Amino acid sequence: MVHRVAVLDDDLCHSDKCGLECIRDCPVNINGEDCIHLGEEKLAVISETLCIGCGICVKVCPFDAITILNLGEELTKDKVHQYGINSFRLYRLPTPRRGQVVGLVGRNGVGKSTALQILSGQLIPNLGDYEHEPSWDKFLDYLSGRELKEHFKRVSTGEVRVSLKPQAVYKLPEIWRKDVRSLLEKVDETGESKKVIAELGLTEALPKNVPDLSGGELQRVAVAVAALKNADIYLFDEPSSFNDVYQRMAVSRLIREIAAKGKFVVLVEHDITFLDYASDYVQIIYGEPGAYGVVSSLYPSRTGINSLLEGMLPQENIRFRDRAVTFQAPTAVESQQSTEVVASYTDIKKTYPGFSLDANGGELTRGIVLGIIGANALGKTTFLRILAGEEKPDSGSVNVGAKIAYKPQYLRSDFPGTVQEFFTEKVGKGYDDPNLQASLAAPLRMEKLLARNVSELSGGELQKVAIVATFAQEADIYALDEPSAFVDVEDRFVIAKAIGRLVKAVGKSAMVIDHDIQLLDLVSDRMLVFTGRPGKVGSATAPLGKEDGMNIFLKEVGLTYRRDINSGRPRVNKPDGKLDREQKEKGQYYYVTRGVPREAAEE
């Protein structure tokens, strides 16, 4: 039996600007019943009971505001929460484990933050009955015989202390405007503030006022605030954002230390390298963004992430993506690259008060994606701006015989109009290019954003618009600064694959700065590595082969990577584990082939 789900995006429904096509053309309405009507707030209201799933309303809505889906009837008994009529609903919940880190991964808008709110007791689940006040008693009856009942029984009586690191760290300066030191002293219930400060590299941030912190500092301060509370369960919502690889590893080590004390820890994360390193188990949340989300069974981290890449959940026999994400070792691509140089530069030097950048000379050839990696505050963005002509070097020269389309690191949302108007004004007909639509715009669901005002977009939505706008420009080189920021794991896969297709299919080139090693592994043909002292001195290598570049970078970080024997994805070895020691002895920090011996021994 089919369970019908009808969802209306309130932000996109504009009944005053359309001909009410959904009401007019609905076959059920034509036959005299009231399947779709206009509600009190002048928004369409759809009866899921009367809906026959024909999809006509979806097609005729001029603002793409309606989603009609068919779900298996077995899910109906597992509906945990629904926000209202024709609104988002969540099925099933994550399962925390004492002394373990449970990772949650999935698209934005499928209920990860809702799940955390329920686990923390901030939101009482209504089991789909949005017309009545929810109660813990009713929810506890629903959980009878389930592993989660004891947790929520203690949550309902206030016995469970919860520490939540929220996703929206930008709100922290609104709560605390004084210095970081006073904040951490105030929240410290564990007596470990000095240890946490050192682990997260926050010593230099202590005298700064919270509103003056960089994005990475703000994120790590928020992690520290959560870690310093004496709680039973710790919930970390996207703690890697803004942080470089060094800082992400530091955060993951701290999270694992908390779990090792016998605490429950749940981690929501889009960087699957970080997720793999920090988590013992993984649960995937799949579904339709803004419509519904389903929490999968609990998988060991390796199995769960490989299932995510495959797009298939073996225990549930569910396929949630049409095709698998595959990783290939850097083998023949370098011998096949074009010899046509589209950009070259001599040794470059750029100095600011308190900071200097030195970059070795190099060149970019047609058809190549150059991945750029290194810690924060080493001059990566400055280097990209110099090549793009937005900054001038103090010494050295740049010869770019091609047009560059540049997506900056920090995006502005002050365009006075809709996304459609933004594309029309900024890139014209380039947005309608069939290759761009098929490779990037359609998979990123741009049609859902076209009627939205740019000023109202979330960080992830704004990032996707900026990436599409960059590739819609007529250019020879596409320069992207941190395209993964705020973007969910599924869309990172889309962007990585699209960069390769759009660049190579038409003989273009690209430069990509990012901290997501999985994304760089997917997109890069060659690597440029930044080293030095953050905020003081930055040094850039010439472009290198991917294996050489990754080896230099990972040696700096002190990590070794092997390739997963099934998926081919790079995985972090356990520090000082057998594979870690063996690869360091051989100087193979980045393993380029699958089937490294004793894969199972590292689990």
Protein model, in words:
The strands form 7 sheets. Strands 5, 6, 7, 8, 9, 10, 11, 12 and 13 form a 9-stranded mixed beta sheet that branches. Strands 17, 18, 20, 22, 23, 24, 25, 26 and 27 form a 9-stranded mixed beta sheet that branches. 32% of the residues lie in helices and 21% in strands. With 603 residues, it is an alpha/beta fold. The protein has 22 helices and 29 strands. The two termini are 40 Å apart. It has 4 domains: 2-74, 2-Layer Sandwich (Alpha-Beta Plaits), CATH 3.30.70.20; 77-319, P-loop containing nucleotide triphosphate hydrolases (Rossmann fold), CATH 3.40.50; 340-544, Rossmann fold (3-Layer(aba) Sandwich), CATH 3.40.50.300; 558-603, no CATH class.
Brief overview:
With 603 residues, the chain is an alpha/beta fold.
Task: Please indicate the count of domains.
Answer: 4
Q: What is the CA-CA span between the terminal residues? A: 40 Å
For the record, what CATH class of the largest domain applies? Alpha Beta
According to CATH, the fold-level topology of the largest domain is Rossmann fold
Strand content: 15-25%
Helix/strand class = alpha/beta
Q: Helical amount among residues, as a percent range?
A: 25-40%
What spatial form do the alpha-carbon principal axes imply? Answer: globular
